[in-house]
From TrEMBL:
Protein name: Cell division protein CrgA
GO cellular component, one term: plasma membrane
TM helices/strands, residue ranges: 5-26, 32-50
Species whose genome carries this gene: Actinocatenispora sera
Coiled coil: none
Keyword terms, alphabetized: Cell cycle, Cell division, Cell membrane, Membrane, Transmembrane, Transmembrane helix
Length: 54
């Protein structure tokens, strides 16, 4: 499970950094601010996975 959480953290941060550095053109330019929601959703999902880890 920690591998899944780490992957979600990397994907979430990578998505947000890519969105900001590209000026909103990447990963998907037509989605606009939904890119932020996707990045933060990945981070929240990682918190959920980590909270269930024993």
């Amino acid at each position: 499970m920690p591998i899944t959480a780490l992957v979600l953290i990397v994907v979430g941060i990578g998505w947000l950094v890519t969105y900001y550095l590209s000026g909103g053109l990447f990963p998907v330019g037509t989605w606009g601010y939904w890119n932020l929601a996707i990045g933060f959703a990945a981070l929240v999902a990682s918190l959920v996975v980590l909270s269930r880890w024993r």
